[in-house]
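Annotated sample (chain length 293).
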Amino acid sequence: MKFEEVTPVRPGFGGFDFPYEKSQVVFLGVPLDITSSYRPGYRFAPAKIREASANIETYVMSAGVDVFEKLNISDLGDIVITPTDLKLTGEKITRVVKKILHDGKIPAVMGGEHTISYFVLKAFDDVTVIHLDAHRDLRDEYLGDRLCHATVMRRVLDQLPADRLIQLGVRSCSKDEAEFAENSGIRAYTSEHLIKEPEKIIANLKKIVKNSEVYLSIDLDVLDPAFAPGVSTPEPGGISTVELLRLLRELGKLNISGFDVVELVPPHDDGTTSFVAARIIYELLAALGSKKR
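Output written by the structure step:
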């Protein structure tokens, strides 16, 4: 299957690659690096995640699953970015994800800056978004832009009701964002909540979401900078890698219809965060694969 909006990349995620037609999960790299306001370099992230993924065991001990034995996985490659035109690039992202969904497959998207989530979610008809992030990303405008990494969830709410957004791990926002979230009734659990009472939060999420389709958007800065230093805007006070992996094992039991991992900035990473990103993805794939038993 060829997509004119995509440049093929080999080897793909994990170094394995099933034909698109036979795949259940389809990887898509989106090296978008247009609206960065602090530490740029998102454009190198998909390549680094793929590189790390080929150097990690595909057997996930916690699940007792070899990911590539349980799931047929293909990697389309990277969206062709038009650096001077965010709208045009976004249209490409939405078209490709719509095709993946239409073909009955789960899109696994590797950013790239968090702005990509808006364009990915435009491809979904009806979904609950679980957003893992240090920041709320609910500004209406930032540095003159209404659509950027700092406003992405506000723009998502232009197309989804507020009760379809759940934020996990948040610990930094502006006063305006806090007021908007409170007035809108957005559900949120801070990093401190996740550390102190993870089981209670998971139980609440399962009651809220039930059987509805879920999209996971994972900004790597949900982790404390000690565990993920190579992100655009590090925020102290985050959860650990172990805590995130435990959380994802439970979230992966929900009706996951797609996910993204975003905000890796390789020029500011020693390689640690790339491997964390790959491990996060394997954990999610293992949860999805466990359902195939």
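Annotation: Residues 6-290 form a domain with the Arginase; Chain A fold (CATH 3.40.800.10).
Annotation: The two ends are 28 Å apart (CA to CA).
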